[in-house]
Design brief:
This protein has 299 residues and is of the alpha+beta class. It is built from 8 helices and 13 strands.
């Protein structure tokens, strides 16, 4: 308590002194107070102009950079044509980031399945893809070179076309993991309606013979599938594809790339499900290996 009393006394005294001085020398006390206030007021404007020049140069610099970057790489629009698929477009247009970036840039237009694009679809190639015109005008003469090289590579990989004009659906004939008519409750028919060729995801899949594409898209349990009608009235079917490179109504030749193998639909892992049918739909299957062998394909 005495300590508190002492504490109060100095405060009262100080207040009393303050009032006394204000009463006797108000002018003298007012001048220092006004001077201190003036110092603070002057300090704020001085600091503000000092900070303003620092921000002012930065804003215009940032504003100048944005138009420069925008002008440098304006997006280009590409219209999908029959036979197109994302990896082909990305490769042909020299797009940075490959088909994955192309799909990311156009996910809303393409949808949830990157392998299903249709002729007439508009794709934005992106800022980096626009740099391709410079590269494109120079390689224009070289563009025809990859096409023949690709074709000959396709023929040698798929094997020599037989006298009847047929080849194996995957390079070197693949290898068979599940034979035709293997019984099992996992299949609706009670048996395997085709043969499964061993093929890692992304393996090139080719038409076994010349014909017309009658189906190219989602096939339910088969995932992404292609069905081709051949001149002899038989149909070849290719299931679980990860990408399609043909469209309905398109004519194909023996050994032509029609898509890439994968594991879409009801599949336990990457492979090619291959069928030969007497009709375009499920349930009209015949022995696919016997058919290919009858066409002169060694498999």
């Amino acid at each position: 308590m005495p300590a508190k009393g002492k504490h109060r006394r100095p405060k009262s005294r100080s207040m009393a002194r303050g009032f006394a001085v204000a009463g006797t020398g108000g002018a003298a006390l007012a001048l220092p107070l006004l001077g201190a206030a003036g110092a603070h007021a002057a300090a704020a404007p001085t600091a503000a102009p000092a900070a303003a020049p620092v921000r002012a140069p930065q804003a215009p610099a940032a504003l100048r950079a944005v138009p420069a970057a925008a002008a440098q790489g304006a997006p280009a629009v590409y219209t999908v044509v029959p036979g197109d698929y994302l990896s082909k477009i990305a490769q042909d247009r020299h797009l940075s980031g490959g088909w994955q970036q192309l799909y990311a840039d156009n996910r809303e237009a393409v949808g949830t399945n990157p392998s299903l694009i249709h002729p007439g679809l508009k794709l934005t190639l992106g800022a980096k893809g626009e740099a391709a015109p410079a590269a494109e005008s120079a390689p224009a003469p070289a563009a025809p070179a990859p096409a023949p090289a690709k074709k000959s590579a396709a023929q040698s990989a798929a094997g020599t076309v037989s006298a009847a004009g047929f080849v194996a659906p995957v390079a070197g004939g693949g290898g068979i993991s599940t034979q035709y008519k293997t019984p099992g409750a996992m299949w609706a028919s009670g048996y395997h309606t085709g043969v499964d060729f061993i093929a890692s995801s992304g393996t090139t899949v080719r038409a076994v013979g010349a014909g017309t594409v009658v189906s190219a898209g989602w096939g339910g349990a088969y995932g992404n599938e292609v069905v081709i009608r051949h001149a002899d009235g038989k149909y070849s079917q290719y299931g679980h594809l990860s990408q399609l490179s043909v469209s309905v109504g398109q004519s194909v030749t023996a050994g032509q790339t029609i898509g890439l193998s994968g594991s879409t639909g009801n599949s336990t892992g990457p492979h090619l499900h291959f069928e030969i049918r007497t009709g375009p739909s499920y349930g009209s299957d015949i022995d696919p290996l016997a058919y290919l062998r009858s066409k002169g394909v060694s498999i």
